Amino acid sequence: MLLQNEDVINYNVDWLRRFRGNSRLVLRPKTTEHISKILKYCNERRLAVVPQGGNTGLVGGSVPLFDEIILSTQLMNEIINFDCNSGVLTCQSGCVLENLSANVSEHGYMMPLDLGSKGSCNIGGNISTNAGGIRLIRFGSLHGSTLGLEAVTADGSVIDCLTSMRKDNVGYHLKHLFIGSEGTLGIVTKVSILCPKAPSSVNLALLGCSNFDDVLKILALTKSNLGEILSAFEFLDAVSMRCSERYLSQKCPIQSAPFYVLIETSGSNDDHDQEKLGGLLEAVSSSGLIVDGTLATDLSKISTLWKLRESITLGLLEDGFCYKYDVSLPLSSFYDIVTLMEDKLKELPYLKVCGYGHVADGNLHFNVTSRIYDERISGTIEKELYKFVASAGGSISAEHGVGQFKRDHMTDVKSPEVLSLMRNIKSIMDPHCILNPYKVIP
Amino acid sequence: MLLQNEDVINYNVDWLRRFRGNSRLVLRPKTTEHISKILKYCNERRLAVVPQGGNTGLVGGSVPLFDEIILSTQLMNEIINFDCNSGVLTCQSGCVLENLSANVSEHGYMMPLDLGSKGSCNIGGNISTNAGGIRLIRFGSLHGSTLGLEAVTADGSVIDCLTSMRKDNVGYHLKHLFIGSEGTLGIVTKVSILCPKAPSSVNLALLGCSNFDDVLKILALTKSNLGEILSAFEFLDAVSMRCSERYLSQKCPIQSAPFYVLIETSGSNDDHDQEKLGGLLEAVSSSGLIVDGTLATDLSKISTLWKLRESITLGLLEDGFCYKYDVSLPLSSFYDIVTLMEDKLKELPYLKVCGYGHVADGNLHFNVTSRIYDERISGTIEKELYKFVASAGGSISAEHGVGQFKRDHMTDVKSPEVLSLMRNIKSIMDPHCILNPYKVIP
């Protein structure tokens, strides 16, 4: 159950290799009872604990700052039950998202979320960070899809909210406290998730357009034309696309353009869906909103096109260091920040500025690369970006969370009353601050 | 802003006329600032306050037990903004649901929830009780649709979580604490709600079937055939239908049957939807699952059919007194409880036992009527029903909440650890227990 050698190093460093702790102890419990005993022990002795799932987070939330004990859920990977009638999956929190997807797809269902990191991330970490991803536009956030969960608070108490009913309106809706609190209020041990039926028809269109205004016009037309079958609407700028092409050693199959959108439909009737999508493509084409486009209706081409979107992150990392930001913005000022930042950074040794993400959800992934980490670059970005986001009424973290990365900016965007309530909640659920210390709460 | 005469009586009695308080003071503030000042004053002087919206709740949550001050939000009925691009509605909490529906429908949108009480209930009350209703199957619960809210806690602190962004992953997701906590943690003053686009095609089928197993078979076929356009799947038993017919003085348009289902589709293409629905009707018909059926495609017939479902509650009340219960149950034992209860009640002077509700969400509305209220009847029901629900892994309140009605049963269904966490949260947000005392928390 413990490791005390070189292996420990991998648990100390985050996925982006930006944050590094010095823990000498990794515990890998297999059951809720183990976690309860560990936390009780640590709480009594005031030993700090960092919960870690797949360690794919992007804000330094799952690695220690100092010598905190790492509590990894990676051995808690049991699927407890899948109900084929209701589509409810119940499992331990350390299950890898992709494994869960494979499991439920055997029964004709799909997971309600899909992330680039699906091969490594754990469902418990997804829930603890309220991960978003490309299917949120269709299936909503994990606050809706998570029917129940079990979590252990700092003193070892097991909070059993693991219902598999779709509706339970009895007392406070405690599960939501654990969703998105990044392991600072408790460690999620089991979850039950409502899985949607897998679609029998999936189509994906990749379109290129010459300016961002046209992206927004396509979005409006997409909502009207595709209605209930729209399952993803993603955008990439040209810089993002070039990074992905470089990483994949593969050219984008359509003519170069300043902006690209990926539009996915998922439905229950192929003819209907293709008719709806055909109508959309005709509309965007006849309105002169696109410069080129391609349509994929078979799984292998769909998967190839999706790779162009999914490989941006890895492509960016090839430059050396990637400064990753994840914000919500109103669509009226959504892409302006990219142009603005290019201007602000122009004296500094950066390599690329790019934007991509879940435009239909108002969620921009803003990225800058440089050869090595340079504090002047991150300093300039953070000074400008967060000010811009706050003044536009956006959010400084759309789906990645706060972790240690954005903790100091909490006071800029949340009122004293809101922060005080957060601190009070922390104080009753983790009075000695042993759970994921130095994260989230400023 | 205050009343001190006979008017006060109406605020003291709940909609079912089961619970009655003795408050002599009703405050009707118009702004968040008013509520903040009132609560600060009351908190300092330890004066108890009952928040009240449309007073349409069914568990005695919105009326006082003793002489608590009633704080009605009915004058806080301002629509602050509707964003036609994003579909985000921002308004004060005292807006009546039906008025909001009318407002957003002018812009081609709809509210994500629809309730029988829509003509009176307030959106703040809907959120505070996490109201469900017939559209939950399609649009999910208010935990998903509510993008943000503003609430005032006991000491008058204004908790501003009123984002209109779809994603905000910064710190604890506090809004969820107010959703479903029935005014015991704070008073919701403003909300922002994500409204779905109004469908351009709506169809409704009413089917009669001879046993409950066939209802479940129809549900399974409906999910496969209708896929993404299914917007409601309700069931009524024959007793419920008779009550509704009596209240409406109108006969159900199809042949009598022991069970009925209402299946609604909402989509963006009439031809596609009718083809899908046609496929379903052919499937249920050729499988011998229905005894009769009718299809409505125009709004006036759709509305007439929906009235058969919506009028059950009023029809039941014509008997004298109605014992209303709202539970979640696994589908395998969903309707068994109705037959079981008929047996348990047979020596008592009850008039009717019936079941109806949101079967696709596992939500049964179980009702019994008698001429006048008789404690032996409610005693028998509660003894048997809650035991049955607990042993089946259901919930003793699916969508109505706890209020004062089910408070004493909380300890039967929630673990000591869960109850302790609820009490701790209450203690930091309302340390002197001035907010809706004697409700929810046992």
How would you describe the overall organization of this protein?
Chains A, B: Belongs to the FAD-binding oxidoreductase/transferase type 4 family. Chains A, B: This is D-2-hydroxyglutarate dehydrogenase, mitochondrial. Chains A, B: It comes from Helobdella robusta (Californian leech). Chains A, B: Keywords: FAD, Flavoprotein, Oxidoreductase. Chains A, B: Its cofactor is FAD. With 442 residues, the first copy, chain A, is α+β, with helices and mostly antiparallel strands. The first copy, chain A, folds into four domains: 2-72, Uridine Diphospho-n-acetylenolpyruvylglucosamine Reductase, domain 2 (2-Layer Sandwich); 79-194, Uridine Diphospho-n-acetylenolpyruvylglucosamine Reductase, domain 3; 201-312, Alpha-Beta Plaits, CATH 3.30.70; 319-401, Alpha-Beta Plaits. Chain A contains 16 helices and 16 strands. Chain A has helices at 7-12, 32-45, 97-105, 123-128, 136-139, 142-145, 175-178, 212-226, 238-248, 270-286, 299-310, 312-317, 336-345, 375-391, 410-413, 416-429, and strands at residues 2-3, 26-27, 49-52, 69-72, 79-83, 88-92, 146-152, 158-161, 187-194, 201-209, 230-237, 259-267, 292-296, 321-328, 352-358, 363-370. In chain A, strands 13-10-12-11-15-16-14 form a seven-stranded antiparallel sheet, sandwiched between helices. In chain A, β5 (79-83) and β6 form a beta hairpin. The two termini of chain A are 33 Å apart.
